[in-house]
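[worker-b] picked up task from shared queue
[worker-b] task type: protein-ligand structure
[worker-b] ligand name resolved to pyridoxal-5'-phosphate; SMILES cross-checked against name lookup, match
[worker-b] sequence length check passed
[worker-b] input payload:
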Amino acid sequence: MRNNIVHIGAGELTYEIRAIVEIAETLGKLGIKTNMENIGDPIAKGEKIPKWMKQIVADLAMTDCSYGYCATKGILETRQFLADITNKRGKVQITAEDIIFFNGLGDAIQKVYGLLKREARVIGPSPTYSTHSSGEAAHAGQAPVSYRLDPDNNWYPDLDDLRLSIKYNPAISGLLIINPDNPTGAVYPERVLMEMITIAREYDLFIICDEIYHNIIYNGESTKPLSDLVGDVPTIAMKGISKEVPWPGSRCGWIEVYNRDKDPLFDRYIQSIIDSKMVEVCSTTLPQKAIPPILSHPKYPQYLKERTSRYEKFSNIAYDILKTVDGIKVNRTNGAFYMSIAFEPSALQAKQFLPIEIPQVKEMIEDLVAQPGTSHDKRFVYYLLASTGICVVPLTSFSTAEQGFRITLLERDEQEFTKIFEIIAASIKAYLNS
Ligand SMILES: Cc1ncc(COP(=O)(O)O)c(C=O)c1O
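[worker-b] inference finished, payload out:
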């Protein structure tokens, strides 16, 4: 190349959740039956979309206007419908103009970080949903800046670590909160959110709050959307239908902007996001049209309740099986549909293994784990996959030094789900004692 054409942040763009799938596919070809517990797609795990919902989409598919472009920020009626939901809570008040649709939250995340000034950093949780950390790090061309989520305290944010990290890094200009959280399944109580908002206010930061799982909360936990608590702090709330409806293939997520008028720099920044959207025409017309009739359908609340009740039941099955296993830290999942297991410090070593039956697979895994820089938890995950066919994701791929793994609660068959967690429990014991 005449010049170096590689972006400074190119090294930060990795997505282990997909990488592990390639290995699983190879194992599949070699005859290992795999259970993919690695990706947060309810549809891929057999979620059934109710008939009434499909009928709404089918009817829209029969109208010509569903096939056209729509306004840059998204369909006005849908944005008004969503603004009304937020406004009815009686705290922050917004208009349809404060809502901007994107091609899924993945697209929103890239744009929101990509349009920040290079030097301005957003501190995010660790572990974290890696699309956030890699998007932010790629924008800055540096490693992510993070605050610790504490596995010894329900995976709640370590607020001292957050405060000190912000205090001693003047480049930090924004604070990312994910609630309910991916990958930990934690749901933050109001008091934790209030403390985080207080810190943001004290250091004049804006907040990004990813609330894509906001209506998937159970085990008697409660939390609040940031719109209820944020007062006058400039905030971007991120929402979407990928997980809740669930319709991840719709590529339909949106941001709600609170307190745009409270700070001229925040206002200018939001305008730059809108201007960058102007150069592409909004594309997700049909799913946007489907949002009001689906979310306001009389059967929607019951449908959501049935799903969250299943996650609640399964989160307790998983917790009860794993909590008795030595060498790991187990927190019950209370929201979203992920569980993060952390190994106790020094529980993992480079010599541990699980038996692998097929010699070709054994050779492949031994080659993989021998690669320099393979973390201890990745080694465990590879052995688990090759030995049992269960595919989970190493925790270190969620931008954390904490060793462990993330698994989903999406398997719908209770017997199969229980079996998977029993196998994992037995495998952890065997691995740690090997
Ligand atoms: C916290 C969080 N935000 C955003 C997304 C991406 O959502 P979308 O399908 O709208 O791109 C995910 C997907 O797993 C997620 O876990």
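[worker-b] attaching auto-annotations
[worker-b] The longest strand covers residues 172-178.
[worker-b] releasing lock
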